[in-house]
Amino acid sequence: MTYCVGLCLKDGLVFLSDTRTNAGVDQIGTFRKMTLFQIQQDRFFVLMSAGNLAVTQAVKEMLLQGKVLKGNNLWNVKNCHDAALVVGEAIKEVYERDHQALIKAGIDFNCNLIFGGQIKGEKPRLFNVYSAGNFIEATPETCYFQIGESKYGKPILDRVVTYSTSLNLATKCVLTSMDSTLNSNISVGLPLDLLIYENNSLKPSKLITIDESNPYFGMIHQVWGEKLRSVLMSIPEPSWGNSGKALSINVPAKKLSEVQVNILKKKPVVNKSAKKLKSKKIRPVKA
After folding, report:
1. Rounded CA gap, 126 and 118, in Å?
2. Are 147 and 4 in contact (CB under 8 A)?
3. pLDDT at residue 1 in the model
């Protein structure tokens, strides 16, 4: 499993991925999920992958080699939408080549990608590419995508991140999102790859690999846990009294009646064997 998250914001793009893959509790490997494509002063793309490692590596290699797919590759397309189409075509080609063998082996064709970047002359764009090769694009209303083990890190993104969020705050949010995932799922693990892309730079503005020795990520892990516990302790506990207080939990719901409790009154169980013993007469023993 894995966890990758990508954000498309007014000031640029943010990408974060872990590096753990596993096929069981005792088969854990470290593979990079983030791949970069760049032509200086012309285009810059980032690809992050989740799913079957053999499938995603085959797609990545096809794109890196510049294989022409329906007349295009990542090095010659005119816009980011066409680049996303090329990524989708690469997935379809790998599927046509491998899916029958995967079916025979009882393995699903599983490939999910986050793809984004910028070509000179247009704005940065971000796409979520599915196993079928189709995709959706991020918008100001839905400005981030997650792939892999996404549920643990989603709440912090939903509550904080918007299209106008600064790149620095977004960086803090995705790292906190990743820490929550690391803490709750063993299939996601360090090191992490973090990339910040500023609009029109056409190169990685900030790129770093984060492991357990990174002081900032260590601080996030400690402070985030402490603040969560502190906030939880500061929330009043439920009041079950009928005093009519505003914070009382003991208030009937408006749309549903009370839950019905069905009580079965059982008849007392008579120990028949004990009753028989009591009714027996004791005969005197003759000497």
Report:
1. 9
2. yes
3. 79
Q: Which residues contact 269 (CB under 8 A, 6 or more apart)?
A: none
CB burial class (10 A; 0-12, 13-18, 19+) of residue 208? middle
The pTM is what?
Answer: 0.88
Q: What is the rounded distance in angstroms from the CA atom of residue 224 to the CA atom of residue 248? A: 29
Would residue 234 be called left, alpha or beta, if left means φ above 0 and alpha means ψ between -120 and 50 degrees? alpha
Helix then strand then coil, % of the chain, to nearest 5: 30, 25, 45
Fold category of 3-230 in CATH: Glutamine Phosphoribosylpyrophosphate, subunit 1, domain 1 (3.60.20)
Percent of the chain with pLDDT over 90: 80
Q: Could you tell me whether strands 206-210 and 192-198 are parallel, antiparallel, or unpaired per DSSP bridges? A: antiparallel
What parts of the chain have a pLDDT lower than 50?
none
